[in-house]
Amino acid sequence: xxxxxxxxxxxxxxxxxxxxxxxxxxxxxxxxxxxxxxxxxxxxxxxxxxxxxxxxxxxxxxxxxxxxxxxxxxxxxxxxxxxxxxxxxxxxxxxxxxxxxxxxxxxxxxx
Length: 111
Description:
Helix content: under 10%
Largest sheet: 3 strands, antiparallel
CATH class: Mainly Beta
Shape: globular
Mean pLDDT: 90
Strand content: 25-35%
Structural class: mainly beta
């Protein structure tokens, strides 16, 4: 996946926090991240209406967004540091590169 985007969400589950359906089709146990990203810079007048679609998971139906399924991802910024957050909590105010990989079945779950 090689793209230029202004917004990208890496989802292992459907929700971020309790309000946002960031990856409406993401599954915890399928072995993939769902990557939801903006296809092009989004004009200011479309920001609020599109932001509201994240409450219902309908952003993936908008022409401005696409979804890819990956096991690992490397993000690099050529121009500006990227802010990074995990489930709404900021973990970096700005990095030029970020890498993540899904490690399947690494956590035991007891029922």
